[in-house]
Amino acid sequence: MIEKYIYYKVYTDYHMGIAQSVFCLLESRAGIVRKEPFHYLFRLAPNTLRQFPCRVVNLDTKEICTDIISKVYKNSPSPTLIIETEDAYELQCTPETQIWTPMGWISAQSLQIGDIIWTNGEPEERYKDKEFLLKCKEKGMKYAEIAEACNISERTIRYYFKLYNINEGKTGSLKGEDNPNYKGDKRSVKGSYMEMKSMAIERYHKGMLPENIILNEKGLFFGKCEYCDNEAELHIHHRDHLQFNNAIDNHVFQCALCHRVSHSGYTIRHVKKSSISNIYASSCDETFDVCIPHGNYVANGFIIKGAQ
């Protein structure tokens, strides 16, 4: 009964494909999001696929939207690569797979460590996955770094670390003066947004800020958001969330929406930038690809070019 729903295509010379264990994000009209592996999608009836459109990206506006999958292709086994990003995204795909970057579509085999790519801008509630949190802990990521990667508050990350009983180390559970790493009440340190902004304006006049940032007559910054690349009025955000740390490398210029995300975890509907931390060869595996009118789809947070 299942066979009549299967669309099978084998590429002989080369092909783009995603490993069967990779998740595709399906989003219903009601906003319900399902993470389904590609080998599961391959066996779904077309009517079922139409009920859960795939998450895609509008390449012009960088907004996240949805589109209906036309076909799911299964490719013959081939060598694969694993790509990891600093914000803990991971993708297993063939070397020929096209990934969307600020420079356009680039094949996986052409990417290098440190390259910037576009990734799904929404948190996907990865912070609720114990394996994800353990992987972040193994990489030595701090609470603030994990919170920024998931677009939620640091308090939420701490809650799930405690909920899953993830070991915080010898001093992680010690609070206040009982902790040997305690450096005093940072809230007593003087620091305000206006003080930080006046410092940024002074740096602007000294030519210390990026060239694409403009200061208007009202004292407002305009330019490209460092997170989503959209042209907008810019806010100044502290990377480490500490108001008193006004070092120039601790300031990030963000649009209002991304700035809200950095503090409250508000769901955004456009992509964000991620840096590649590791690329290495993996096993030979069956891969799948998606044919979709929009021409791209989101897989494990990466923006992938669909089959033609």
Structure overview:
The N terminus is likely disordered. The chain is built from 7 helices and 17 strands. It has a domain of 131 residues: Endonuclease - Pi-scei, Chain A, domain 1 (Beta Complex). A hairpin with a 5-residue loop joins strand 11 and strand 12. Helix 4 crosses helix 5. With 308 residues, it is α+β, with helices and mostly antiparallel strands.
Topology of helices and strands:
Blueprint: E1 18-19, E2 23-27, E3 33-37, H1 38-41, H2 46-51, E4 54-57, E5 64-67, E6 71-85, E7 90-93, E8 98-101, E9 104-107, E10 116-119, H3 130-138, H4 143-150, H5 154-163, H6 193-205, E11 214-215, E12 221-224, E13 231-238, E14 251-255, H7 256-264, E15 272-291, E16 296-299, E17 302-305
Antiparallel strand pairs: 1-15, 2-3, 4-5, 6-7, 6-15, 8-9, 10-15, 11-12, 12-13, 13-14, 16-17
Report the biggest beta sheet as strand number plus sense, adding barrel if it closes: 5 strands, antiparallel
Whole-Å distance between the termini? 27 Å
CATH architecture of the domain at 3-81 and 88-112 and 279-305: Beta Complex
CATH topological fold name of the domain at 3-81 and 88-112 and 279-305: Endonuclease - Pi-scei, Chain A, domain 1
- Overall shape: it is globular
**Helix fraction?**
10-25%
Give the number of DSSP strands: 17
